[in-house]
Amino acid sequence: MSLNTTAVRIKVTLKDVKPEVMRCLVVPLTLRLDRLHLTLQAAFGWTNSHLFEFLAGEERWGIPDPDGDFGPQPIDARKTRLGDIVHETGAKTIHYLYDFGDSWDHVIKLEKWFDNTSTDGLPFLLEAAGRCPPEDVGGAPGYAEYLDAIGDPAHPEHEQMRLWGPERFDPNVVDRKALEAAVNALSDKWKPRRRVTRSK
Fold this sequence. Notes:
With 200 residues, this protein is α+β, with helices and mostly antiparallel strands. It has one domain (5-133, 170-190): MM3350-like (Structural Genomics Hypothetical 15.5 Kd Protein In mrcA-pckA Intergenic Region, Chain A, Roll), CATH 3.10.290.30. Helix content is 27%, strand content 26%. An eight-stranded mixed beta sheet has the order 5-4-3-6-7-1-2-8, with helices on one face. It starts with a strand and ends in an 11-residue tail after the last helix.
């Protein structure tokens, strides 16, 4: 990676989930990790209802607990950029852990670097496969049980699970337009403001 690298294509896959849930995005290397978290929430369709951490090498980045009651604190994600992780750890794979109860592990592979490119319009969603599991379904094992139950009318929990989750849940159908709109909204929100200079 050269000093002029400005953006990277990432492939993000939800670990231990079938059918595959994957997103491919282009993000600026200067993206703060708290904003990368929001980008992944938008791209996957999560609801941003739980804590998160990024992990690479021996390090952890997240939002430190102000009371410090839960052991060693993560490095502050609001003060770290994606490029910092790459420079500090040399990692080509980063883990994004969302919801410490359900433990959704997203494997982020840094696939392609872009040098001297504009970061306007970034982050940008390139590909999306597989629908995001419902929140609080119990992680990968709970999700597998949920799919079994809603897919089998004879399953003892079929009706309960069908009513509990989103209506007509199909793990293979992705609302790509909605995901793109959510990611684009972040791109617009974070667009650098240009200063207007008035002539005297």
